[in-house]
């Protein structure tokens, strides 16, 4: 019995991390570029830098939205 190729084994072991661009986050939050960069600068929205490119993990955007919803509900 043949084993699946290593790429298939790796894909099952660690799911792909979705990385969003700033324009994608802008569209999802319906905010302008400056507002998104303010969130990144203040640390409210986590990101990574790859060379000169800024990427936001999808889970970080989901966490940000969840936190804001909880804050609104508590107010």
Molecular structure report:
This is Helix-turn-helix domain-containing protein. This protein has a three-stranded antiparallel beta sheet with strand order 1-3-2. The N and C termini lie far apart (60 Å). It contains four helices and three strands; from the N terminus they run αβααββα. With 75 residues, it is an alpha+beta fold. It has one domain. Helix 2 (22-29) packs across helix 3 (33-42). The model has no long low-confidence stretch (mean pLDDT 86).
What key attributes describe this structure?
75 residues; three-stranded antiparallel beta sheet; 57% helix; SinI_DNA-bd; HTH_17
Tally of separate domains: 1
- Main sheet makeup: 3 strands, antiparallel
Shape designation: globular
* Cα-atom radius of gyration: 17 Å
Average the pLDDT over all residues and give the rounded result.
86
Please tally the helical runs, counting DSSP H or I stretches of 4 or more residues.
4
Please provide the count of β strands. Answer: 3
């Amino acid at each position: 019995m043949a084993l699946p190729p290593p790429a298939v084994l790796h894909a099952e072991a660690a799911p792909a991390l979705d990385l969003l661009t700033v324009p994608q986050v802008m569209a999802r939050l319906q905010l302008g570029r400056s507002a998104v960069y303010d969130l990144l600068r203040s640390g409210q929205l986590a990101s990574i830098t790859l060379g000169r490119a800024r990427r936001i993990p999808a889970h970080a955007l989901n966490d940000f939205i969840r936190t804001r919803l909880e804050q609104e509900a508590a107010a």
